[in-house]
UniProtKB/TrEMBL annotation, chain A:
Region Disordered: start-end pairs: 267-287
InterPro entries hit by this protein: AAA+_ATPase, ABC_transporter-like_ATP-bd, ABC_transporter-like_CS, ABC_transporter_ATP-bind, P-loop_NTPase
Name assigned to this protein: ABC transporter ATP-binding protein
Domain ABC transporter: 6-239
Protein species of origin: Micromonospora acroterricola
Molecular-function GO terms, alphabetical: ATP binding; ATP hydrolysis activity
Alphabetized UniProt keyword annotations: ATP-binding, Nucleotide-binding, Transport
A matching Pfam family: ABC_tran
CDD domains cross-referenced by the UniProt entry: ABC_NrtD_SsuB_transporters
Keyword Nucleotide-binding in record: yes
Composition-biased stretches (Low complexity): 267-278
TrEMBL record, chain B:
Membrane topology: Multi-pass membrane protein
Residue ranges of every copy of the ABC transmembrane type-1 domain listed in the record: 91-275
Taxonomic lineage from the root: Bacteria, Bacillati, Actinomycetota, Actinomycetes, Micromonosporales
The protein's name in its UniProt record: ABC transporter permease
Superkingdom of origin: Bacteria
Organism, as annotated: Micromonospora acroterricola
Length: 309, 288
């Protein structure tokens, strides 16, 4: 235990569900007794079917919600709230639209109360690190999706957290941009030595990025298996995604997920016919839940709302 | 490190360079002049038509010349009022009142709106009261203001303050409540406390919406004031219009009306410009 940077110790999380016309109030178990350790400097990817509680896992780690059972430890100390030792990168960037790229990176530094005189160098350095030299004065609306996410990554790195938490950061980007950002993230991780916990529902992304990949079950989310990814020397091959090792890992995770996706769909179908009238509520979630919400299972809408509210 | 696909789309768009008029290519210059001229014509043709009808209809006997004198006679009367200094006096009196009322409304309604928008229990406590007052026409309260505050400046400024407060208050509340929850989550994840979250995220995000309220209030301040000045005032444009009508100085009455339109236009343009200045980021977000 002492070797783990982050430890989920039998963590459970249930959300209250408000009563609807056809169903009484109850609770949804998003996570059930999840135990998972993350080593210092490790790049850990968490994959799972839609709405399995991946994002909840990250919220707990970020201190944005509290577990209903068990505890989350960072450096052996329980997480009691948000802190600058953990930086979160959101799928929807969460950039302040009235601030330039540099201003957004400065935001984290202001939160950390870094003296004004030291900020400029840190901002330049981190915009440089994410390949945005020369874009410091651009506002978010002047940047493409990929560039916005680079700014968000720079902002999180600038205040120098030990742990970077990434919640499907590339899910809203086109495939080409996603590929190039994945490569850059690996490069940045190698350069900075941060511990990264990366949430995704993309299997390729998981294999490409992770040193280890934790596969979650469908709801209630539990750890199904943690897989070590060994792709050999990444720099030795031109296209790591086409190697045998990559395909092997990819297939392994796909097989693990297939059963869970089926189970999730079955549960969704049942829930959908039972509480179909709440479908309207699902329409409000995409901003928060992103790709996951496209499936807009009514039951899931409750969870997301509960999480946000 | 930046892909071609990642270039910001806005860079690709040709910048609207004002200096392009100095382009040595003469044919393009004339074309541009024609385009500008056409646009000016397009935007003034309706006003010009109104002026022509105003001038022509009384002269042709379509309407009574006594009640609607031709525009040229009104403009002569306006010029006389301006030269005699009467117009300046009335405009000064009106603007002082409406700016005082608007200023006080800005000073009170914005902080109150921020409090109500941010602090939910206060919103729940006050919202029934706000609904009642918001739906009570300001002018219906004019007699009440006069009874309580007398006929002097206080009641007029108070009425403007009252009328201007609502758009500002309601927009401020909406602005604070409408902040993207993701931005709040993101700021919270960095451990910002409530005060700093408010200062660094909520307030800047609400500024454009607040300014929309101020702009609306600017229009209200003049609308309400003129009506207030028709009751027991000794100066002001509302007084001028009312007084001129009683004394059958019909051209003077129209002069007052034209002046109010002009002031309303100018105030609105100023506030629109100010609003744009403070919300460039929002305008562009909605555009693309």
């Amino acid at each position: 235990m002492s070797t783990d940077k982050i430890l989920f110790d039998r963590v459970s999380k249930t959300f209250p569900v408000r009563a609807t016309r056809r169903g009484a109030a109850g609770a949804v178990t998003a996570l059930h007794e999840v135990t998972l350790g993350v080593r210092p400097g490790e790049f850990l990817v968490v994959v799972g079917p839609s709405d399995c509680g991946k994002s909840t896992l990250l919220d707990l780690l970020g201190g944005l919600t509290e577990p209903t059972g068990g505890q989350v430890l960072v450096d052996g100390r329980p997480v009691t709230g948000p802190g600058l030792d953990r930086g979160i990168v959101f799928q929807q960037y969460a950039l302040l639209p009235w601030r330039t790229a540099a201003g957004n990176v400065a935001f984290g530094l202001e939160a950390k109360r870094v003296p004004r005189a030291e900020r400029a160098d840190l901002i330049d350095h981190h915009l440089d690190l994410v390949g945005l030299r020369g874009f410091a004065d651009r506002y978010p609306h002047e940047l493409s999706g990929g560039m916005k996410q680079r700014v968000a990554i720079a902002r999180s790195l600038a205040y120098d957290p030990d742990v970077l938490l990434m919640d499907e950061p590339f899910a809203a980007l086109d495939a080409q941009t996603r590929d190039s950002l994945q490569d850059e993230l690996v490069r940045i991780w190698a350069r900075t030595g941060k511990t990264i916990v990366f949430i995704t529902h993309g299997i390729d992304e998981a294999v490409h990025l992770g040193q280890r990949v934790a596969v979650l079950t469908s709801r209630p989310g539990r750890i199904k298996e943690v897989i070590d990814i060994d792709l050999g020397d990444r720099d030795a091959v031109e296209d790591v995604r086409s190697t045998d090792a990559f395909r092997h890992h990819r297939h392994r995770i796909w097989t693990l997920l297939r059963d869970e996706v089926r189970a999730a769909q079955a549960a969704e179908g049942a829930a959908g016919s039972r509480t179909a009238h709440t479908g309207g509520a699902g329409g409000r979630t995409p901003v928060v839940a992103g790709a996951d919400a496209r499936r807009a299972a009514p039951a899931a809408a409750h969870t997301e709302e509960a999480r946000v509210g | 490190m930046v892909d071609i696909a990642e270039r910001p789309t806005r860079l690709a768009a040709p910048p609207a360079v004002p200096g392009a008029a100095a382009d040595p290519a003469a044919p393009r210059l004339t074309a541009r002049l024609f385009a500008v001229g056409g646009r000016v014509l397009h935007r003034t043709v309706a006003i010009a038509a109104l002026a022509a009808i105003w001038e022509g209809a009384p002269r042709l006997g379509l309407v009574g010349r006594v009640f609607l004198p031709p525009l040229s006679e009104v403009l002569v009367a306006w010029w006389e009022l301006l030269r005699s200094g009467q117009l300046a006096e009335h405009v000064g009196a009106s603007l002082t009142r409406s700016l005082a009322g608007l200023g006080l409304a800005v000073l009170t309604a914005i902080p109150l709106g921020l409090l109500i928008g941010w602090y939910r229990p206060l919103a729940e406590l006050l919202s029934p009261l706000l609904e009642v007052f918001r739906n009570t026409a300001a002018l219906a309260l004019l007699p009440v203001f006069v009874l309580i505050l007398g006929l002097g400046e206080t009641s007029k400024i108070a009425l403007v303050l009252y009328a201007c407060s609502w758009p500002i208050l309601l927009n401020t509340i909406a602005g604070v409540k409408g902040v993207d929850p993701l931005l709040i989550r993101s700021a919270r994840s960095m451990g910002l406390n409530h005060l700093r979250l408010f200062q660094k995220v909520i307030l800047p995000a609400a500024v454009p919406t607040i300014f929309t309220g101020v702009r609306l209030a600017g229009a209200y301040s003049i609308l309400v004031l003129v009506a207030a000045e028709m009751v027991g005032a000794k100066a002001g444009l509302g007084y001028l219009i009312n007084y001129a009508q009683y004394n059958f100085a019909i051209p003077d009455m129209y002069s007052g009306i034209i002046t109010i339109s002009a002031i309303g236009l100018v105030v609105n343009q100023l506030l629109v410009a100010l609003e744009r200045r403070f919300s460039t980021w929002r305008v562009d977000v909605s555009a693309g």
